[in-house]
Design goal:
Order of helices and strands: HHHHHH
Number of strands: 0
Strand content: under 5%
Helix content: 55-70%
Number of helices: 6
């Protein structure tokens, strides 16, 4: 990994798990290359975009500490994490765009995994 710290990798895995909620027969996020794919994408992104997305991940992690919960985002159950993202989308200017961008990033990273896409019926063309 080059763009994300181990902490940020874990936060992104929780984001992907929360927004995509893969269920069998699809594998859990941890059994795919979704985090690595996201890291690779960030490595190629402009520096400002990379910094903004990393700051967003860290902000998500710390946001619940400002509430009665007083815990980190990754330690919340999935339904509580989803409620925080839903509240962000509904109540903050630009919140919906932020959550949609996170969902799209998670989806591209997860569904781009070769095993996941094969389970969904994708068959790459043979190289000539």
């Amino acid at each position: 990994m080059t763009a994300l710290s181990p902490r940020e990798q874990s936060i992104f895995a929780c984001v992907a798990d929360t927004l995509l909620a893969p269920a069998p027969p699809l594998p859990p996020i941890r059994d795919t290359d979704a985090v690595k794919a996201f890291d690779n994408w960030l490595t190629l992104a402009p520096r400002l975009n990379r910094l903004a997305l990393r700051a967003l991940l860290l902000g998500l992690e710390l946001a619940p500490r400002l509430t009665r919960t007083r815990t980190r985002w990754r330690r919340l159950p999935p339904q509580r994490r989803l409620a925080i993202l839903d509240a962000l989308a509904a109540r903050r200017p630009g919140g919906k765009a932020i959550v949609d961008a996170l969902r799209a990033s998670a989806a591209v990273s997860y569904y781009g995994d070769a095993h996941v896409s094969a389970l969904l019926g994708y068959r790459p063309r043979e190289q000539r």
